[in-house]
Amino acid sequence: MSRISFQKTIFILSAIVVLSFQSHTDKWVSKFIKLNKNGSLEYIPDEKGNIIPDFSRVGYYSGDKNIPEIPVVKTISATGSDNDETVIQQAIDEVAKLPLKKDGFRGAILLKKGSYIIPNSIRIKASGIVLRGEGDDTKLLSTSKKQVAVVDVSGDGTITEVKGSRTKIINEYVPTGSFTFSVSSTKSFSVGDKIIVLRPGTNQWIKDLKMDQIEDRGGTRQWQPKEYDLEFERVITKIEGNKISIDNPIVMPMEQKYGGAEIYKYSFANRINHVGIEHLSFESSFETDTSENHAWDAIKMNKIENSWVRNVTAKHFGFSCVNLGALAKSISVLNSKCFDHKSVITGSRRYSFSNNGQLNLFMNCQTSDGRHDYVTGARTNGPNVFYNCTSTKTHADIGPHHRWSTGTLYDNIVTDGEINIQDRGNWGSGHGWVGVTQVVWNCTVKRAAVQNPWVSGNNYCIGLKGEKYDGRLKGRPDALWEGQNKDGLQPTSLYMAQLNARKK
Questions:
Q1: What is the pTM of this model?
Q2: What is the pLDDT of residues 416-427, one digit of tens each?
Q3: Residues 6+ positions from 297 with CB-CB distance below 8 Å
Q4: Domains of the chain and any CATH numbers
């Protein structure tokens, strides 16, 4: 080896050692959550006991079951006509009459490669049905002149309280992240019961949050207490004396000074489950880039649980690829894309992946040309997770949109726009504080405003790469920021670390 080659080799090896050393020393852990060598996580409480909650129990069966491959019971080919909706709907209605198997499914309907013309909406109203294509070569083309969903999935009814089961939580303060609390009596409850944890809205809470003094700009509505009765769906996992343990954490403090909290058993007889929409391409016909007389959502879901959307692509819609309603629970939306919206660029449009439900997971999704690409609506109750998603050509911000969402994790979101968690003041008819226990973890943005509400807990911005700015309104408290523009945050993904730690 020549002297020059030897020197080059030494230089390269030295550089590798230096880079390896830097890579090692650049790794850092949050002061709020520490990753132990065995993969377990240590949560560091504040003076009131609040911690960043465990977000791992979201999506299809809380992430404890893999999404299955359901056998095909019906196969359809495109007719070549201007209406394939009828044949698809007939197939759905036929499969809906089949008996449910032990696994909760009736069977899959396979749409072979081709273009399917959909003049209105395809509706799924029964459990156990999977609508499957053969990838992007199976295209559902909406020709509707109305703001419809191409596939509308919904059960019926609503949450119904079991009479005589309502019981008060007696703790003075139940901190964020808790899985346990004490009640005045457990005699009405058993392990496995589905319960609502009800956190009431009160005049004092709204006053302290300053949402009774939103600056009026004409049509601004001050917040009203009964509109902020928050209902968190949980399952009882253990009862010890008067102490109850639940399957998912509390995601905002339950404080006696703001009315405390109650629990009650509930039923939801006609909520459907075990529905899958997968391997399909959706497209809306349109007249111009600002047209609004065409399909609004590719897929809309409500009154449903333990279901999924995966590997779908949506183009040219006015609102979303996937729109989950307030009663959509434990839904996984995976590996899906939303491109090239067609609408006026203004409010209530271009919400690419929209979530109003709870315990839902959006993972590995992509968007372009949207406004609020990964977004929650008013009074969206968590935990919910957006993980490993990208957004380009944005026209507005990512994050909770308005009126108090609780418990959302934005984990490894990469956008050329903004992530904001703030007091939106009198935007809309009085958006106000967007929420609490919103966690921005290892995200990359153009800029971000992440603030704490005046009361009721914290928001977090950890490992953000991008600019920090004041947001809509100055003088609001900072959230808990840590490690801005600092590489090497460990764990890289909070959601995956929590999921892996739980499954050890």
A1: 0.95
A2: 999 999 999 999
A3: 148, 149, 150, 317, 319, 320, 321, 322, 323
A4: 60-157+271-503 (2.160.20.10), 160-267 (2.40.30)
